[in-house]
C-alpha cells in the first residue's frame, strides 16, 4: 500500500516550490524543488515526471531516481535535477514514515548529534556588515557568509578591491578568532580578479572562498585553488557527481551541492561519497525553505565528511516570509548554540502545515534573480 497515488506542487513565498506526494494508504511525503527564479519551469517538469511515478511503489527510490534522470533520453541541467530532487526528497520522507525512522537512520544511522549552521549577512559598508554580523552572533550563530562584492568590473579597480577587503576586515573584527566568515564571490569575478583578491583576503583567514569562477568555467577553478591557501568551495550550480568530479580533481576543499538542485538525497549522498575520496567536506547550499533544510540535515546526520549547514532562518532576503512559517512544529529547526540538534521524527523529521502551504500557493510568488548591467550597459553577473 505504498503505491504513489497523487503528486501536487505548491508555489509559496518567498521563492519556494514544494512537492507533496501521497500514497494509497495515506502516507504523505514532502519535498522541495525550488530553483530560485525558475520555480514555475521546475513545476511543469515535476508534473511531467509524475507520469513516471503515479501507480508505482514509493519505496523503490533508487529505481525511480534512475528512471527520472535517465528515462526520457534528454537529461541533466538544473530544471530536471531540481524537479527530481523535490520528488526524491518526498519519496525519502515517505520511506522514513513507512519504516518509522528518520531518513538519516535509513542512510546508515547518525554519525553526529548536532550540525553547525551558518547564515548569510548583507551590507554594502563595513558598518552595515558589522551590524548584520552582530545580530547573527546575538542569535547564537558561530559562522556567517557574506558576498565579497556587488557588481564587479572584469578587471577590478583599486577601490573595488579595497571595498572587499574593508568589509571582510570588518567581519573579522566583529567575529573575533573563534567564529568564522566565508566569502562568496558568487561567480561575479573573472579568474584574474579572483586571483588578485585571494592573497589580500588571506590575512583575515576566511573559512572558505566560494564560487571564484562561474560554474560553466569549472576548468579554471584549479588555477584559482593553486593561487591561494584559503580553502575553496563551489557547487550550488553543479547538479551531479559527474559535474563535481572535475572540481574535486582540481583541489576544492568544500563541496556545496544543493539538496533541491542536485538530484535530492539519493544523488547528494553519492556526491558526498565521491567528495570523501578527495578529502572534500560537504557544506550544502541552502538559502531555501524548511523541506530543503531538513533534507540537508538528514544527509548531514549520516555523512562523516560534513562541515557545516547553510540556512536562511530569519534572513531578510526572504522578504518577510520565513523558513518556519510552513512548519506545524517549529522545534526541530530551532538552533541551540549555533547548531541544530538531531532530528528524530520519522521521515525528514519536520511537520509541514498543509493548510498553510495550500493558502500560500493561492498567492504564489514571482521571485526573479535580478539582471545587472555594467556602467557601459553590458551584462554583469549577479
Ligand atoms: O550561496 C548562496 O547562498 C548564494 O549564492 C545564493 O545561492 C544565491 O544568491 C541565489 O539564491
Ligand atoms: Mg553562493
TrEMBL record:
Keywords: Lyase. It is an enzyme of class 4 (lyase). It comes from the Bacteria. It holds the Pfam family MR_MLE_C. Its EC number is 4.2.1.6. The keyword Lyase applies. SUPFAM superfamilies: Enolase C-terminal domain-like, Enolase N-terminal domain-like. Residues 126-231 form the Mandelate racemase/muconate lactonizing enzyme C-terminal domain. One of its GO terms (biological process) is amino acid catabolic process. GO terms for molecular function: galactonate dehydratase activity. NCBIfam families: PRK14017.1. This is Galactonate dehydratase. The gene is dgoD.
